[in-house]
Amino acid sequence: MHRYSDAEIDAALSRLPEWSRVGECIQRTFTFVDFVQSMAFVNGIAEHAERVQHHPDILVRWSKVTLSLSTHDVGGISVKDADFAAHADAAAASLKQR
Question: For 6-93, which CATH class?
């Protein structure tokens, strides 16, 4: 696994339109109908993170959940982050969002 180049990050983000680059991370804020849905999403993300051994930074603000992804082993953004972001998008789509 390698650290993505700027071109690779741009290509990955073109497939993840709700995500953006923030320094050496990719980040997205999901908005749900309430705290219960936010926590259901976070619990599913935690289970997935354990399965794939890749753990995002998670910020919860009632109906909003922000995920920040970076691959510490390579010191930046990698395929692990793009794959995790795609999984998070699919997981959020199955929950009630605003």
Answer: alpha beta
pTM of the model: 0.95
What pLDDT, on the 0 to 100 scale, is given for residue 95? 84
How far is 86 from 89, CA to CA, in rounded Å?
5
pLDDT bracket for residue 97 (50, 70, 90): low
Dihedral of alpha carbons 7, 28, 90, 41, sign: positive
Mean pLDDT of 77-92: 97
Q: Where are the domains of the chain?
A: 6-93
Residue 68 phi/psi, 5-degree rounding, is -120, 130
Residue pair 50/84 in contact by the 8 Å Cβ criterion:
no
How many helices (H) and strands (E) would you count in the chain?
Answer: 3, 4
Widest distance between CA atoms in the chain = 38
